[in-house]
Amino acid sequence: MSATGAIIRLARRDVGRSPWRSLLVALLILLPVMGMAWGITILATVMPDADARDTHQMGAADLIVEPGSSAAQRNALFRGETRLEPVMNSGKRLLLPGTSANVSITSRDLEGLARGTFTIVGGRQPSDPGEVAISARVAEITGASIGGHVELEGIGALIVVGTVEDPWDLNGRLVLLDASIARESSDDNAAWLVALPEGADPLPILEAASNPGPTGVPFQVNWRLGRGRLAELGGTAGAGGAPTPVVVVMGGLVLLESALVAAAAFAVSIRRRQRELGLLAAAGAEPRHLAGTVLGEGLVLGLAGAIGGVAVGLLAAAATWPFLDEITNRRNPPLVLEPVALGAAAVIGLVAALVAAAVPAWSAARMPVLLALSGRRPPSSGARRYLRLGLSVVALATVMTIGGATLSLTSSDSTLPVLLLAGGAMLGTLGFGAISPWLLERLEGLSARMPLAGRIALRDTARARSRSAPIVTAILASLAATIAIGAYGASRDAEIAANWQPWMAPDEILIEGPDAERAGPNAALAVNAVASSAIVGAANGETGYAWIDAPLARLAQPKDPPPGAPPGFGLGFSAHNVAIADEQLLRALHAEAAAADLARGAVVLLTQEAWLGLDRVSVVINDGIVDAPGVELPARVVVTGVGGGNLPQALMSAATATRFGLTAGIPYRFVLRLDHTVAEADLQGAAAASAQFPDTYADADRGPSRPDDLFRLLLVVASLLFAVTVTGIAVVLGEAESRPDQRTLLALGAEPRLRRRITAARAGVLAILAGCLAVPAGLLPVWGLLASRGADIVIPVFEIAAAVGMLPLLAIGATWILGRPIPDWSAFRSSTT
Amino acid sequence: MTTLVQLEGATRWFGAGHTQVTALHPTSLAVEAGELLAVMGPSGSGKTTLLSLVGGLDKPSAGRVIVDGKDVGSLEPKNLAILRRRTLGYVFQDLNLLAGLTARENVAIPLELDGRPIGEAKSAADAALESVGLASLGDRFPDDLSGGEQQRVAIARALVGGRRILLTDEPTGALDSITGESVMRLLRAHCDTGGTAILVTHDAAHAAWADRVVFLRDGRVVDEAQPAPSHEMTAPVGAATGSSV
User: Fold this and answer.
1) How far is the C-alpha of A522 from the C-alpha of A524, rounded, in Å?
2) How far apart are CA A237 and CA A49, in angstroms?
3) B53, B96, B153, B166: best to mutate for the A interface, most A CBs within 10 A
4) Model confidence over A102-130: pLDDT tens digits?
5) Of A449, A748, A833, the CB nearest to B113
6) Which of A391, B1, B71, B107 is buried most, with the most CB atoms less than 10 Å from its CB?
7) Which chain A residues are Cβ-neighbours of B48 within 8 angstroms?
């Protein structure tokens, strides 16, 4: 017991004797733990649990009957003391001076079963059909406040009596009507909140709703998942519980990086305390005591980092909390603490510190006493051993990656493939890192003719394996992440580009919205459009429409017929997006060549690819429920190369439309054609012209969207910065051991700036070595990940070369700028006699 | 005779006001070419300070230190470094070899720092190593050498390139008596061929190899003497290790 006490005492003193190195190790543990604690707490706060979701959807009810049930069905299901309240939701236009805007309207009783779905935050809820409560956003648009009026299309002016808030959409355009409107609306349009009597069994109700018998129509009943006995049906895992493991795993990976760097710091500590450890051993300390002093240091620093990390993480979360509502556009509860997850984060941090100290502790325990007392570096074991170890681990990682990819393609269970792929990525990184001592030994042999600074840096890096190997692994892991992100992104981009279907021609702009017909001409003027037209759909009454069918048409592509297709295989053509066109629209859609065909009554088809046998089509008229028999018309195909459904695929003249009893629909689209490819400035001009009308927007096809580009860039920058930081730490640790050498060099007539050169060369050696190893380490898991989806890997050679080349440049540049010259002789006075 | 080292009222103090400590009081001293000067005195007497001033590692607070005709106190850092590379050779008590470089590379450092081609520097280093009897150990790293061998490598490094002034701070402190004596023979040989050496030592037996001994106490020169010849100066250098020059 006294030995343990002495060990802990020694460890504590060592922590105090090297305050900067101790601070570094503590920070290496603290920062990832802090990130985990922050992430766990914020996610638990912003991710609503199942009960909160239920409350938002069904208030205080036990069940919600979705729209579509009849009164007879509900009466048959719910009897006795069951309480039902209707909820009606729909969209309306809010009439504003000279324009209008979309709003969501709802009718429900917020003091009844719907309490908790929305919140009255000012005034009161409406109690008369002539009253409304409006959200802050609607108040902002209309300028109305309590006591004022708003006007809804088809309803008229209503007096505002309160302010309502959707706690899950603080910017929502919401108008709350009196609950009586829902009660009087058609059964089919309303959802029904149901409060079952105490002790009622809901299972027969759910059963009856989904299996109403041969004559009934099933309807959907959702039940409360968050609490009550029905929770067992859907599982009650709160939504906040799911991301926590992700945070812990991500944090754990960062901690692995930290542990590698911390291991290097402990290795330096051992080297500097070598004589002292020898003295301890000479005084009777056993190997376990020597190891204990190092592990004790890890324990002290790990505890400080872990506890401090959780504390700082919670403080950071508390500092973030006031901004959460704005960031998430949602009303969030007070901070939700997850003690188990927070404890896990702290334990992972502590374990990382102990793991980091373990190998140096083992080295300290094995060091012969005389060697320790001499202060000489222990003789290095053969580097070939590291090569064998590294290659074995890389081989294992490759097998795991191949296994994970193969299993993913053949098995429906994703757990094992994911574990294999993740394990393969981690082992691959460690394996390539383990090769570094061997590579350094090989490079050391080449250093004889290098300039002095490079030679000293390379020899020092090669000889201090216990410090260099974990550092190289940490840098390569970080750079491998950069490479992996780049390769995965490039592969995904190639995949998306291969499957991309343009939805507009490159010189077209589409104005969409309720006021498209008014905004369009302004936009056309703003961008000097060479052609422009509203797009008017062919309508059949209120809900009916026309569509085009040609079942025997065949694609005139080299791939036609598809491989393995039977003889006579045909692909049918159909188009649901039919518009009434004139010459202006034809021109705007690149179909002016078909003007004569349109005039003679043919249907003009705008297609992405050429078709065979598409010279006649059936025009099918639907009345909103069923199709009438098709009527054949001649067709003219114009291959525009545009797919998708944003623009009409079929055009007919107004005369043809009239012949089928079709009328002009609402023109909520307007197309502009420019004499050049749409530039950002054109789009901004059109957007500005459209922005004068609420809910009306301008858009153009700008190629495959890559929404994660910014995220990817941020990850790459973060990885590179991390790699440079780790390199910097490595250099600082190396510097800590180089003080006697600096003194010698100064006495031998070295100019003070030589130290800068050595420092920069040391950073360069580490970065170049890690960069070379990072390429296979980064590509292996990406290959596995893509192979698991049956996708091909695309290697972005230029980007990888840039990243691999940039790291040494950044590292050398940063160390050159931040490095210091050899200090004045007086700085070494303490070490002179 | 040519004066290679001259101190004119050289003084060195540290700190200021009531915390000021004077490590070397005004000292005047001249060392001629071919002279081996021993500096003796107890710990804290100012020996190392004196050596640091002569070596251009430190500058006097007052007075002048002239080395090879150059006023050390007025030299720019770059010129001081050149002086150390071309004129001065420093040998420390503790073994100051760069652990990552071989014996040959350690010896070649001053020449490399001076911009000499690596090949030329290494050839000169081989010659210097041969002069101290270590011709066959050039490829060894310091950790693979004994203490005596390391000290001789350090002397070879101080001699390489024909530097004239050798400054040695307890060069035999970590060595056994036989190895220590071989180091003294090297110093003596250097002075006998026209060089100059200043030897800081506690050991009167080693001081006896000098042409003159200066005694320091509390930062002041308190005595100066010429030791009686007690050694056979004709013994070949490197005899202790069985090698010859």
Assistant:
1) 5
2) 8
3) B96
4) 889 999 999 999 999 999 999 999 999 99
5) A748
6) B107
7) 832-833
Q: Provide the 3-class DSSP secondary structure of residue A604.
A: strand
Q: Which residues of B touch A750 (CB under 8 A)?
A: 81, 109, 113
Collapsing DSSP to helix, strand or coil, A64 comes out as: strand
**Beta pairing class for B88-91 and B165-169:** parallel
Three-state SS string over A66-86 comes to: CCCCCHHHHHHHCCCCCEEEE
Closest residue to B52, CB basis, from A379, A452, A825: A825
Rg (CA), chain B: 18
Q: What are phi and psi of A333, to 5 degrees?
A: -75, 175
CB distance B90 to B47 below 8 Å: no
CB contacts < 8 Å between A and B, how many? 76
Min Cα separation B234/chain A (Å): 30
State which amino acid sits at residue A320: T
Binary contact (B170, A749; C-beta < 8 A): no
Determine contact, residues A133/A160, Cβ cutoff 8 Å.
yes
* Closest chain A residue by Cα to residue B118: A449
A181-199 pLDDT tens trace: 888 876 667 888 988 887 7
Tokens 């693979």 found at: B144
pLDDT computed for residue A213 by the predictor: 65
Which of B68, B113, B145, B153 is the best substitution to test chain A (most A C-beta atoms within 10 A)? B113
Q: What's residue A559's pLDDT?
A: 60
Three-state DSSP at A108 gives coil
Phi, psi of A109 (to 5 degrees): -100, 105
Task: Write the pLDDT tens digit of every residue in B77-104.
Answer: 788 888 888 898 888 776 578 888 889 9
Q: Is A337 exposed, middle or buried (0-12, 13-18, 19+ CB in 10 A)?
A: middle
Q: Is B184:B235 a contact under the CB 8 Å cutoff?
A: no
The predicted pLDDT at position B245 comes to 26
Q: List, in order, residues 6 or more apart from B134 with CB less than 8 Å away.
A: B103, B149, B152, B153, B156, B243
Per residue in A310-354, pLDDT (tens digit) is 999 999 999 999 999 999 999 999 999 999 989 998 998 999 999
Interface of A with B in 748-767 (CB under 8 A): 748-752, 754
- Chain A nearest CA to B232, separation (Å): 31
Nearest CA in chain A to B167: A747
Is ipTM > 0.90 here? no
Residues A601 and A654: their CA atoms lie apart, in Å, by 9
pLDDT for position A783: 93
Spatial strand order in the sheet of B3-14: B21-32, B3-14, B62-67, B70-71
Q: Return the pLDDT at A334.
A: 93
Q: Give the model confidence (pLDDT) of B193-237 as tens digits.
A: 889 999 998 888 888 899 999 999 999 999 888 876 655 444 434
Q: CB A745 to CB B98 under 8 A?
A: yes
Count CB atoms within 10 A of the CB of residue A253: 17
Select from A350, A379, A378, A362 the least CA-distant residue to A290: A362
Q: Do A456 and B88 touch (CB under 8 A)?
A: no
| Chain B residues within 8 angstroms (CB to CB) of chain A | 43, 48, 52, 55, 57-58, 77-78, 81-86, 88, 90, 92-93, 96-101, 105, 109-110, 112-114, 118, 143, 157, 169-170
- CA A34/CA A332 separation, integer angstroms: 22
Question: Which residues in chain A are closer than 8 Å to B100, comparing Cβ atoms?
Answer: 455-456, 459-460, 463
Q: Is there a contact between A675 and A513 (Cβ–Cβ < 8 Å)? A: no
Neighbours of A213 (CB within 10 A): 7
The 10 Å Cβ neighbour count of residue A411 is 11
User: At A577, which amino acid appears?
Assistant: N
Please tell me which of the candidates A456, A459, A752 has its beta carbon nearest to residue B77: A752
